[in-house]
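Two entries, shown back to back:
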Amino acid sequence: VEFLRAQPAWALALAAVGLLVAARAALRLALWVYAAFLRPGKPLRRRYGPWAVVTGATDGIGRAIAFRLAASGLGLVLVGRNPDKLAAVSEEIRAKHPKTEVRTFVLDFASEGLAAGVEALKDSIRGLDVGVLVNNAGVSYPYARYFHEVDEELMRSLIRVNVEGVTRVTHAVLPGMVDRKRGAIVNIGSGAASVVPSDPLYSVYAATKAYVDQFSRCLYVEYKGKGIDVQCQIGLDNRQ
């Protein structure tokens, strides 16, 4: 106590500010640890509904998410461009989770028929209580290259799959969530747009993922009052 009384007022004020900043940082760290490692999972079926739509569901992140959703008791609509891979993943999920109902829908997000394909997807899920949408389908460069070396086909594919595909599928599924006043939309972003300050030699890819990030942020604000959760999951490097 005597030590504190001997200190000038400005030093005590700085110490108080430092203590508040440190306490705030510690609280944020504790909340992050709880959310990342300790918080129990939500009962997805009861909270959002019995069905989930997962795009890009045959490989990698999409495939892993599909298995996790099946373990949570949700029926699945798996969307991908390869019918053989869709059939294989469906059989694997049914073998591991026999009670899970799995449907598939073939859709090539890079094709010129994307708009018509999404309309057909919308028709195919009509009547289903879709509570979860995972927009995972995405493409990147086959290898790093300067922007002036990006050809027309690759540029068109990046924008169509990563931007138009996410936008159209969300637009097709979201109205049902609004009607039911519940739902969750998970968009798969990338650290190329949200973590590093820039991602040279992958400029168009990074820009499309920046769109996904901002699109998700805006939807979160628009629909948080309607019972719909929206988030963008960021991988440090999911370009391949």
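entry 2 starts here
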Amino acid sequence: MSSIILDKRLQTAGDMVRPGKRVVDIGTDHAYLPIYLIENKICPSVIACDIAEGPLGSAVHNIDAYQMTDYIAVRQSDGLQSVKETEAEDIVIAGMGGELIASILHAAPWTKNPSYHLILQPMSMADYLRKFLLSQGFSIEKEKAVTVGKHVYTVLSVYYSGEQKDCGLFYSVVGEIRKDKSEDGAAYLKKCAGRILKIANGLKQGGKPEEAKIYYELYHDITEGKDAAV
């Protein structure tokens, strides 16, 4: 079998996994990430979870093909519901909306422990996810932007600190991406700025000048390079 090659999105998530830690991969789909992690000896074991039977069938097939059944366990699970808190240290939740990721974490309060490392990759609603994380006492250690085709996403490295914070509008939109000086980081900020400008113009046209002003100022802050303090 040829070595697994991940797309940029999953590769970035895989690069954030701490070497030697046991991993659970939520929304594993074809189990490409678990196979990659074992194949490259990054971690000793992975629990590959998905809620749907179809992706799990593909995962089992691929794991068998790569002869990794001793290292990768496959489970049908709604989020983390079928995972015990003693079974992994690094938790990857990728390829779904930010609101769904937040609901998965909310349903697993045992993740509120600094020993766990969360690697989160929202396909949408990253601003919602950032607000949720900070309100629940999680800290975003870093973010990395990734471009896949015409889309640009963020991958978050998160730990529980216990310090609950109110997430301002600016931070909810850009998070820690300001520190990502790559071309992908610039592309992510450009996407954010475009979305905010569209909202501002819509509010202005809708006869809400005061609300529009807030978003025009936010657009200016993003394009002028303001630091995203929480």
